[in-house]
């Protein structure tokens, strides 16, 4: 069932592990199949290098497992994924990471401001990466805290936990946003260190929203 989507989850999970966004079985990934209304999600506690297609779980929006061919359990964070899909019916993929710099700012409960234009790729209405209030991992409280924070943001930090990103088209889009979160967090860390902890100048949200592809560039008819 939904084999192609299962393989996409495996591919992105392995990329996240190889590129350092998730280590030691941390993080989780899912895709919503809009036609069936079912979600494919990574299993709990399995090395991503060892994952097989049949290891990926299929679950419905009520958290009822529909398929787990190898008997594995869905990620313990699956309630968060489902809550985000319910709050944001426009998105169809979610990537949750434990990347170092983003997680460091989540521990500090410190949002990441618009230090560079790349923040616009996150589709966050306030042009800041906000922090969702703390909730114990795997709980309905965490799920609702994150889902509500993502109401107007495709990427957020999770207090004392990590980061999560979603996309409207495919899981590659969600993964790219997760990468941007980590890159922005790393830049922000280096800037604060260079400034002795003083906050740097940031781009106003109104300025970031004005960005557009240059109209001066023309193409042949």
Write up this protein.
With 221 residues, this protein is of the alpha+beta class. The chain is built from six helices and eight strands, in the order H-E-E-E-E-H-E-H-E-H-E-E-H-H. The protein has helices at 3-18, 78-87, 100-107, 140-149, 171-194, 205-209; strands spanning 28-33, 38-41, 57-59, 65-67, 93-97, 131-132, 155-158, 162-167. It has an eight-stranded mixed sheet with strand order 4-3-2-1-5-8-7-6, with helices on both faces. Helix 2 (78-87) packs parallel to helix 4 and helix 3 (100-107) crosses helix 5.
* N to C succession of SSEs: HEEEEHEHEHEEHH
Q: Report the portion of residues in β strands.
A: 5-15%
Tally the helices: what do you get? 6
Q: Tell me the radius of gyration.
A: 18 Å
Largest sheet: 8 strands, mixed
Total beta-strand segments: 8
Characteristics of this structure?
6 helices; 221 residues; single chain; eight-stranded mixed beta sheet; globular; alpha+beta
Q: Summed up, what is this model?
A:
The chain has 221 residues and is an alpha+beta fold.
Topology:
Layout: H1 3-18, E1 28-33, E2 38-41, E3 57-59, E4 65-67, H2 78-87, E5 93-97, H3 100-107, E6 131-132, H4 140-149, E7 155-158, E8 162-167, H5 171-194, H6 205-209
Parallel strand pairs: 6-7
Antiparallel strand pairs: 1-2, 1-5, 2-3, 3-4, 5-8, 7-8
Helix pairs in contact: 2-4, 3-5
């Amino acid at each position: 069932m939904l084999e192609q989507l299962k393989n996409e989850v495996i591919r992105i999970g392995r990329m996240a592990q190889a590129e350092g966004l998730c280590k030691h079985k941390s993080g989780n990934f899912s895709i919503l199949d809009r036609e069936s209304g079912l979600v494919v999600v990574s299993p709990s506690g399995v090395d991503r290098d060892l994952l097989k297609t049949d290891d990926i779980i299929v679950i419905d929006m009520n958290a009822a497992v529909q398929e787990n061919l190898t008997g594995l359990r869905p990620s313990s964070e699956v309630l968060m994924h489902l809550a985000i899909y319910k709050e944001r019916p426009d998105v169809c993929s979610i990537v949750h990471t434990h990347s170092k710099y983003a997680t460091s700012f989540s521990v500090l409960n410190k949002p990441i401001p618009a230090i560079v234009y790349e923040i616009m790729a996150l589709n966050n209405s306030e042009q800041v990466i906000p922090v969702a209030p703390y909730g114990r991992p795997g709980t309905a409280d965490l799920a609702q805290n994150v889902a509500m924070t993502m109401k107007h943001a495709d990427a957020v930090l999770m207090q004392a936990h990590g980061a999560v990103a979603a996309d409207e088209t495919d899981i590659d889009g969600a993964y790219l946003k997760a990468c941007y979160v980590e890159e922005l967090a790393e830049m922000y860390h280096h800037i604060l260190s260079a400034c002795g902890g003083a906050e740097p100048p940031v781009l106003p949200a109104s300025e970031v929203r004005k960005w557009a592809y240059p109209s001066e560039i023309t193409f042949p008819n």
